[in-house]
Amino acid sequence: MSEIVRNSRIIYAAVPTGFPEPGIHLTYNDSLTIDLENVPLNGGLLIKTVALSIDPYMRTIMLGADIDGEKYLLDQPILGYGIGIVLRSEISDIRPGQYVHVDALGNSAVIPLARVTLTRQPEHAEYSVASVSAGVRVMKRSTSLPWSVYVGAAGMAGQTAFYGWREHAPAKKGSTLYVSTGAGAVGSMVIQLAKRDGMRVIASAGTQEKIDFLKEIGADVAFNYKETSVRELLAKQGPVDIYWDNVGGDTLDAALENMSVGGAIIICGYSTNAGSAPASSLMKMVYKDVHMVGFGFNTLEHKYLDEFYATIPPKLESGELKFREEVFRSLDKVPEALLRVLTGKNRGKAVVVLSDG
Amino acid sequence: MSEIVRNSRIIYAAVPTGFPEPGIHLTYNDSLTIDLENVPLNGGLLIKTVALSIDPYMRTIMLGADIDGEKYLLDQPILGYGIGIVLRSEISDIRPGQYVHVDALGNSAVIPLARVTLTRQPEHAEYSVASVSAGVRVMKRSTSLPWSVYVGAAGMAGQTAFYGWREHAPAKKGSTLYVSTGAGAVGSMVIQLAKRDGMRVIASAGTQEKIDFLKEIGADVAFNYKETSVRELLAKQGPVDIYWDNVGGDTLDAALENMSVGGAIIICGYSTNAGSAPASSLMKMVYKDVHMVGFGFNTLEHKYLDEFYATIPPKLESGELKFREEVFRSLDKVPEALLRVLTGKNRGKAVVVLSDG
């Protein structure tokens, strides 16, 4: 018996020098099939992809950066964070029909719900077989939110904001936060967490629509960095007690020049420039006793994951916390979705949804 | 009655673009006199300079950097850290004949021994009148070390190393420290503190003589950064658990690329490049959960000053802690001494001594 179906994939076709172009660096390939009944699982899972998260770090990996040893292989599918439904399982704790969140980065610290490590998964493909060393988590959906949200505001992006804020932000009522890329999936969650802590929030973005969203979620000062000098605005509206840095480079320098004594800078990843823009004002850290911390959400998951799922999805469902998403409805949209994210054109967390689960 | 004497000074004559050249950007001027009996003190002190510390930050100020608002005024004497003997006093706690350490940076947090704030002092002059807002500390010399050491290994440089190490270094036995400018006044103290904590130490410097000194004070791996790639050496000898960064720029990038997960980077100031060399690898902080902290020694003085004076000078006197100094014996040597420091030619902590006290 066999059930042979198409298994479309997004292929890493060429190394980009700038932005990855759809059809050139990332291509859609529907030439392969998969035998759902007989494909060997080697002790793992067969997963049907439900939703895939589209994130800036994917370009960083395409450019060859070493992120915990993670690489995309040329002519092979790219990898990412996503949610899928289990079709077959050779893992005792996981049953067909369950939904799983899969961590492409292969960090076994991220699997508190199902203590299993699988291969780097899920591929950006309709179906994938997970075998060794990635993190798989059986999802218990406690809200009516669609799965897309569970790879966005209730997924890696929201978790990054929540974990980083809980662990690293010395939030004080009345003190000032500045967030660059404030309308992004991480930035917008950070802003709302800061407002809940009574902070004054300065936030920047690159379009009027995003500025409007910044105001809607409570930013006290929202500005367009393409029209207003970050340096001049912070000199006027600062000093900055906490800077959540999503871009680096000259924006980081501008913040460093306007930090308060003892201020904190938090970096969870850079949105558009692959982190290559240099910063020249680190000496300001000495004059102002500033500290700067980088973190990956996965190393904090063991501390905050349960708290996150218990508190954040219900607030997203009730509207107490706001989020925006830009949902694409077929796998072939992955390259376009990523390019929109990297060029700042996306109107919310980019997610590619293959089925409503 | 009056006692009129020469009061030579070092003048900030022009803003340098690169290194400050003796006779051009810093000039020696012996045209003024001072009336030691009658010069008005305005509630302050008349101090005869004993020893002046020559430090890299002085160039940073000359280049116009804003360090807590500190500036040198053109055609006026430069300022610095130093020790002087009190000739006259209008401050009740301070008597003629006492030796005082004076903090040019005007931070009132640094005066635990005499609760007095005076003006930015001492000038690089034979005599100076201190009036409001700098830190003055009456010195109790408990060792036979000359005063020069109390502006070096037992002064601001040693204190910077000690305070920063105590406050910010997550030292663990067997873990690895990398120190750039390891043979400098700060770096060499950091190395010895790390060895006392059982760490493995990698250190770099720019001459064979300095490499020899690094080995003498216990560095496990000592290398010449002009001959050996920092990046390649750290890739082989790392990963680095703590990087004490004295230079920034590409060396910082090389360290960032070779940090261990959860590593720490400590910045107390940059030795030769005024902190302007850009760093491009801050994203590594995210992948490796690295934190970076800048600090000025003056904000930590209240916590560690007493401990410092109780423990460090006796160990310097006994030879348990080693130090090197390059002593100049007249005020007109200040410009040359500073240039030697900035070009890495000094063979120890640069100090200008005007009298043996």
Automatic annotation (TrEMBL), chains A, B:
SUPFAM superfamilies per the UniProt record, alphabetical: GroES-like, NAD(P)-binding Rossmann-fold domains
Superkingdom of origin organism: Eukaryota
Single Gene Ontology MF annotation: oxidoreductase activity, acting on the CH-CH group of donors, NAD or NADP as acceptor
Keyword terms: Oxidoreductase
Pfam family, one: ADH_zinc_N
Residue span, Enoyl reductase (ER) domain: 23-352
CDD domains documented for this protein: PGDH
PANTHER family given in the database record: PROSTAGLANDIN REDUCTASE (PTHR43205), PROSTAGLANDIN REDUCTASE 1 (PTHR43205:SF7)
Name of this chain's protein: Enoyl reductase (ER) domain-containing protein
